[in-house]
Specification:
Layout lengths: L1 E4 L5 E6 L5 E8 L15 E5 L9 E3 L22 H67 L12
Antiparallel strand pairs: 1-5, 2-3, 2-4
Organism: Calyptomena viridis
Family: Belongs to the EMP24/GP25L family.
Subcellular location: Endoplasmic reticulum membrane; Endoplasmic reticulum-Golgi intermediate compartment membrane; Golgi apparatus, cis-Golgi network membrane; Membrane
Length: about 160
């Protein structure tokens, strides 16, 4: 799994087998990988928790790889040697699985980078609006201050004669 967006990019993760035994438990992890072999058939439960940061919405990518791929050719599991064409197909298939893994990794990095860029864009927009408002308030204040310098306020004093 990998946290793509939200907060400090960390979640709690727990995996239980069909009997309720905890197989995996980690706290505040940004990413991790866990491999296990099921001891019996049944439904495993996994939970991603965000209890420590309830105000932050998070997006989590997770992936399952279950078992081995079936053979490309029915003759691949036999004892005899594969033909040159069959062995080339098997090696190409393995290379393409590797390419798929790399593409998934780069898509995750791109999604994480896009999320950070959008967050930064929002912050810059709010900062710019705040600066514009402050500039407007200061400008109006300066106009009134300068206007007060040039206004002619004549004070009249009256003397009471003696």
């Amino acid at each position: 799994f990998q946290v793509i967006t939200g907060g400090h990019y960390d979640v709690d993760c727990r995996l239980e087998d069909p009997d309720g035994i905890v197989l995996y438990k980690e706290m505040k992890k940004q990413y991790d990988s866990f491999t296990f072999t099921a001891s019996r058939n049944g439904t495993c439960k996994f939970c991603f928790s965000n209890e420590f940061s309830t105000f932050t919405h998070k997006t989590v990518y997770f992936d399952f790889q279950v078992g081995q791929d079936p053979p490309l050719f029915p003759s691949e599991n036999r004892v005899t040697a594969l033909t040159q064409m069959e062995s080339a197909c098997v090696s190409i298939h393995e290379a393409l699985k590797s390419v798929i893994d790399y593409q998934t990794h780069f898509r995750l990095r791109e999604a994480q980078g896009r999320s950070r860029a959008e967050d930064l864009n929002t912050r810059v927009a709010y900062w710019s609006i705040g600066e514009a408002i402050i500039l407007l308030v200061v400008s109006v204040g300066q106009v009134f201050l300068l206007k007060s310098f040039f206004s002619d306020k004549r004070t009249t004093t009256t003397r009471v004669g003696s």
